[in-house]
Amino acid sequence: MVDGKISIITVCFNCEGLIERTIKSVIAQTYTNVQYIVIDGGSTDNTLNIIGKYENKIDVMLSEKDKGIYDAMNKGLKYATGDLVYFLNAGDYLCDNNVLRNVIERFNANSDSDILYGDYIYYDNNSEQRCSGYRAGIPDLLRRGYCHQTIFAKQSAFVKCGNFNTDYKIYADFDWLLRALVKFGQKMSYIGIPIAYYLKGGESESHGDKYDYERIEIIQETVGYQGLFSFAISYPTSFCGYLMKISRNKGEPAKIHEIEMRNRMPCIESRAAEENEP
What we know:
Layout lengths: L5 E7 L6 H9 L6 E7 L6 H6 L7 E4 L5 H11 L4 E4 L5 E2 L4 H11 L5 E9 L4 E4 L6 H7 L6 E4 H7 L10 H11 L5 E12 L3 H5 L4 H23 L1 H15 L1 H13 L2 H6 L6
Parallel strand pairs: 1-2, 1-4, 2-3, 6-9
Antiparallel strand pairs: 4-8, 5-9, 6-7, 6-8
């Protein structure tokens, strides 16, 4: 992969105030073996006109209604021809003009890795903070999740592991990564460089509590009750918090599920008081 091609997929919908910065960060890269794909969900504001200004820099442009962000991301995957695939959605942008060049260098140095991840800078109009991806194994991933703006995956990883599961509304990217690591044995390496600025207030933040049951379901289906138990023991406060939020948002059936899970894992109550979260 010495000079491998990178397919960058940007998904957008009615984001006239955000899309241009994202596009500019891609086309300004010093590494040029790039396929740029923009998937628009049928915007009705000025988004398409802004994208049109850069049509000679965009390899694939599709605008049509979709069934949500992961449906749009899957559409982008259909067009991706690169050795690597990366998602940079509207409102997010690459940290500097050498990000892609640095990533290719890291992939060449970690040729046995299927997925590389770095850091992201979490920002809004008032502040920014550099954040690192998980480094402490699967239990830490289960607790913290990950930011897909920091992930570069080989095309072969998507061939092996499949696309995003659109049954999940918020955590399909979390599901894909966990599936890749646990079920398909893909190797993931941390490269220690900032990749992208990540805009606060995305779907997972705005509606994440409502869909926390998705995380529990994904963990249970991917790593089984043993993995769920490991998560609960490692981070009891976080686990109990998920269950309580699920109960509030899903009503009586979820409360019954919470009681069942607590009965299966009675030790999490005593451990929760001891947990020290960073």
